[in-house]
Amino acid sequence: MTRFDASSDPDALLAAGLTAIGLPDSGRQRELLDLYLSEVELWNRRVDLVKVADRHDLVLRHILDCLAAVPVLSEYGLTDWADVGSGAGFPGIPLSIFLPGYRFTLVERSGKRAAFLRGVVAVLRLSDRVEVHEGDVARLSRSFSGVVFRAFRPFTAEVVKTLSRVVQEKGALVAYKGTRRAIDAELSALTESFTLDSVKRIEVPFLDEERHLVLARRAPTG
Length: 222
What we know:
- By secondary structure, the protein is α/β, with parallel strands linked by helices.
- It contains nine helices and seven strands.
- It has a single domain (10-218), classed as Rossmann fold.
- The longest helix is centred in the first third of the chain and has 18 residues, at 27-44.
- It starts with 9 loop residues before the first helix and ends with a strand.
């Protein structure tokens, strides 16, 4: 997909990207997204949240990348999700804005980033359906109907074992990944505890990079 012509105008880029995904570019959801972007930029000056050159980069490589998966998550019909390794709130915060019937637990072990997440949840008034767990995913005391992550860790035997503890039996795992070649190198570890549904190519509006979602189900035990 070609880059957006108005590369110097991140607001126009965001509007065009939302339209391309099929999401509303007006109303309360757009207001919340704009507020979230401002909070990320404000905190990013003090805390190493995300490495971006400018707002255009933030919109293109992070916001639109996260939101490109909204139609896929909507198909699952699962409403209780953990965002593992949430960092700056990607993808949990953007997803929660456009999936208002879903609950998200943002799992982040960095104290500074967890403080940002608690602050942004309060500012966006999402606390009725978004909570923050400060700590490692291995220390989670509950499981979820779905787990999603982006820029977390490659699938290794140890990572997959940890994820299997926090995904309910037959629950969903959705992982944002890059090239198919890199994904194929990891899949043997994943299928030790999960049944692969598909590796779905997703189109991030105006981003000329290969992006996929790995979609899997927690295999029944016993």
